[in-house]
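Sat 14:20. Reprocessing the chain from the morning session after the first attempt stalled halfway. Input below, unchanged.
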Amino acid sequence: MDGTSINNEKLINDVENNLSRNEIQIEENQINNSDIKVYEKELSFSTIKIYVLKLCNDYNITISGGDNPHIGTSVLAIPRPSLTGDESISATSSVMNMVGHKDEQICRYLAEKVCINKNAVVLCSGGFHVDNISKDGINEVLQAVKELAVMI
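Finished this time. Tokens:
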């Protein structure tokens, strides 16, 4: 181990020993009260919620809903100049799906829409699950995400 590693470990230990739980609670409450926005829409059969945490110029978004909210997909959208040459902003996205999950469509749409609208890096994760959801139900979820995206 070099001297830098020893100094880093000592610093971490000093911080952990000197930071009280009350200070951590205050930081958590500050984030909950000022930086996280929650967008919610009642569907005919469930509720969808979108949690948006603004991190400086970037956004960390979570989609949650249905009977079994989960992390089925994560999409990282990065802004870039559009390939059309018209000076507009577009997005390049990387997607990680859990096997058997179909949440990419809603997470990708939201990540790319916010990325382009805000010219910011966006990470969107989450999942909406309802057993035996109908095609109309899927369309209702997609429409709700599109409506909520405009509000972010």
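The radius of gyration is 19 Å.
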